[in-house]
């Protein structure tokens, strides 16, 4: 089995804002693209154009409809990838040392040349963040784009994970949780960031920001009078279009 470092010099990770994530999957596509087309190991697909396609993705987005005790239902989009836990059980169960946690920045990685594809790490991870690549027979996972964030050949603004760089809603943030003054630490403290399944005792580095309460139906109805038709009888092209669509 593999040992974890007693401490790390930094704690690099993500803050994901569940209030602003719109579930567009841009982070999923950018992750797949970067890790397949650039420096990372390719993420294979099986029958991508067939009836039962499947593939390896290091980042996935799940959507849930939440029904509060009062008010309208709320749709929450929940991105999920490796959380780079401080007490990572996926590392300690690895029989070959292929899974390891870096001392310098706390990133959990897999040395694919040492991975035997036993799948123990996938069983140990309570978050389902590990992905067995069916084509290569080895385990793959989020690397926090370690080949981007230290890449001096990239412009400085691109030295962050592809998912963060791509997110159009600004729902993903990257930084050092070991620094209490960092952007991610301050954001987590200000918005009540939380760990995913803290009862598991894995001490995830990644944090989630809770969705804010939505407007109530009464508040929404305030706008209803302004949505009334401004004209009872339409003329010209609009009248024709209205009749045409009404006949469908």
How do you describe this structure in short?
By secondary structure, the protein is α+β, with helices and mostly antiparallel strands.
Describe the structure.
By secondary structure, the protein is of the alpha+beta class. It has eight helices and eleven strands. The chain is globular, with a radius of gyration of 23 Å. The termini are far apart.
Strand numbers in spatial order across the main sheet: 10-1-11
Major beta sheet summary: 3 strands, mixed
State the total count of DSSP E strands.
11
The computed structural class is: alpha+beta
Mean pLDDT: 90
Structure annotation, total helices:
8
**First and last CA, distance:** 67 Å
Tell me what portion of residues adopts beta-strand conformation: 15-25%
Series of secondary-structure elements, N-terminal to C-terminal: EHEEEEHEEHEEHHEHEHH
- Weakly predicted, low-confidence segments: none
Keywords for this entry:
248 residues, alpha+beta, 3-stranded mixed sheet
Write the layout of secondary structure elements.
Elements: E1 12-17, H1 26-37, E2 45-46, E3 54-55, E4 60-66, E5 74-80, H2 89-92, E6 99-101, E7 108-110, H3 120-124, E8 131-133, E9 138-140, H4 146-149, H5 162-166, E10 172-176, H6 183-191, E11 207-209, H7 217-221, H8 236-246
Parallel strand pairs: 1-11
Antiparallel strand pairs: 1-10, 2-3, 4-5, 6-7, 8-9
């Amino acid at each position: 089995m593999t040992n974890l470092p007693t401490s790390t010099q930094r704690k690099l990770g993500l803050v994901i804002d569940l209030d602003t994530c719109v579930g567009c999957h841009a982070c999923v596509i950018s992750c797949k693209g970067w890790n397949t087309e650039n420096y990372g190991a390719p993420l294979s697909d099986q029958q991508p154009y067939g009836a039962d396609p499947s593939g390896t993705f290091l980042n996935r987005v799940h959507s849930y409809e939440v029904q509060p005790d009062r008010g309208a239902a709320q749709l929450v989009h929940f991105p999920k990838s490796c959380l780079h836990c401080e007490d990572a059980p996926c590392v300690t169960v690895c029989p070959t040392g292929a899974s390891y946690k870096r001392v310098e920045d706390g990133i959990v990685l897999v040395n694919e040349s040492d991975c035997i594809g036993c799948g123990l790490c996938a069983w140990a991870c309570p978050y389902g963040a590990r992905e067995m690549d069916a084509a290569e027979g080895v385990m793959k996972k989020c690397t926090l784009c370690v080949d981007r964030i230290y890449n001096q050949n990239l412009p400085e603004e691109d030295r962050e994970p592809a998912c963060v760089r791509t997110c159009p809603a600004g729902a993903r943030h990257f930084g050092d949780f070991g620094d209490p003054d960092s952007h991610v630490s301050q954001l987590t403290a200000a918005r009540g960031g939380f760990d995913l399944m803290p009862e598991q005792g894995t001490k995830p580095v990644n944090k989630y920001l809770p969705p804010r309460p939505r407007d109530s139906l009464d508040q929404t109805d305030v706008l209803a009078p302004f949505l009334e038709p401004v004209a009872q009888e339409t003329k010209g092209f609009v009248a024709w279009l209205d009749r045409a669509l009404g006949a469908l």
